[in-house]
Amino acid sequence: MRNVPILFALSSFFFSWTGCKPEPPSPSEIRIHQEFSSVHVAPHRLEIYLPEGYSSSRRKHFPVVYMHDGQYLFYGDSLNWSNAWGIDSIMDTLVSAKMILPAILVGIGSTERRLLEYMPKKGADQFPDSTKEIFSSIYNTSPESDQYLRYIVEEVKPFVDSVYRTKPDPAHTFIAGSTMGGLISLYAITEYPDVFGGAACIATHWPLAPQDVHPDAARAMVDALGKRLPDPPVTESISTTGSRMAPPYFEPYQKRMDEHMASRGYVQPGNWKTLGFDTPMITMQGWRQELHHALEFLLVTSD
User: Fold this and answer.
1) Both ends of the chain: CA-CA distance in Å?
2) What span, in angstroms and rounded, lies between the C-alpha atoms of 257 and 89?
3) d(CA 71, CA 155)
4) What are φ and ψ of residue 66, in 5° steps?
5) What's the longest Cα–Cα distance across the chain?
6) Which domains does the chain have, with CATH numbers?
7) Contact present, 103 and 62 (Cβ < 8 Å)
8) Which residues fall within 8 angstroms of residue 252, CB to CB, at 6 or more apart?
9) Which helix (DSSP H) or strand (DSSP E) does residue 146 occupy?
10) Contact at 8 Å (CB) between 36 and 152?
């Protein structure tokens, strides 16, 4: 029976890396698909990381991790190197050390509709009426996350599987994101557990706002997603928290999600883990020190 790993990590996504220099040329490769169109949402830019050896090993197929906010992932993207997570460099290092399986990463660029596309619709449906009114007054529309996930599942993934040498089954297909990207990644697992075999939900933005100003809505979101978690026999989960990895008002909601995990039958350390880190992840150095936990979890070498 297959396992579906889910990783929650509390961390900050508000970086200031303008003083950083790009890493040396990577042995991997980044390919760009500028405006990948859709019948569901506006076009998004795709940035695809191919691991070292992809071009030379013609018969080898690879796991795939779909990641949100794709324009901030890679040093290989010259447009954003000063604000990049540098995941391509981290992947290169981990693969070279045989700590993870080589994998394809698909960065899906975010647009000005990021909040609408990353806000889980079925969670937002449970907001108190007052919060629904605030959301409607600001955006004059409802969340577009269902359409965004259809874009990934029905359009992006089939394209990637047809063009690149992937392992398309759920056991080798993952999804990951930070802050609101963490929310939509968890939502993807609840909506498409037969497509995504695991998720990394990093700095999951339970509060839904820059400050904890809508606690009833945040609790409603946590509870809605917690009740929709796949059954434990199918799902393996890891939850990562830390006092300096996110604003302190994130943590109570993560603990509330942990309660849902336990009540659904998830057991630590078997199919769910909660890890804490003191390293502040509001800097490039802190982020890079801890991101490997997510990659090692999703891309275990015992494949």
Assistant:
1) 14
2) 32
3) 19
4) -90, 130
5) 57
6) 5-15+29-72+90-298 (3.40.50.1820)
7) yes
8) none
9) helix 145-150
10) no
Q: Which residue has the tokens 């997603």?
A: 225
Residue 272 pairs in a beta bridge with: 237
Q: Can you give the pLDDT of all 303 residues of the chain as single tens digits?
A: 455 667 766 543 322 223 344 455 567 899 999 999 999 999 999 999 999 989 888 899 999 999 999 998 887 554 555 567 888 989 999 999 999 999 999 999 999 999 999 999 999 999 999 888 888 887 888 899 999 999 999 999 999 999 999 999 999 999 998 889 989 999 999 999 999 988 888 878 888 877 777 899 999 999 999 999 988 755 555 555 443 455 677 888 988 999 998 998 877 766 776 666 665 554 455 556 677 888 888 898 765
Question: How is residue 139 written in tokens?
Answer: 């955006």
Give the predicted TM-score (pTM) of the model. 0.88
59 contacts: CB under 8 Å, gap ≥ 6 = none
Helix (H) or strand (E) holding 6: strand 5-9
Listed in sequence order, the residues at least 6 apart from 17 whose beta carbon sits closer than 8 Å to its beta carbon are: 82, 83, 84, 283, 284
Q: How many residues does the chain have?
A: 303
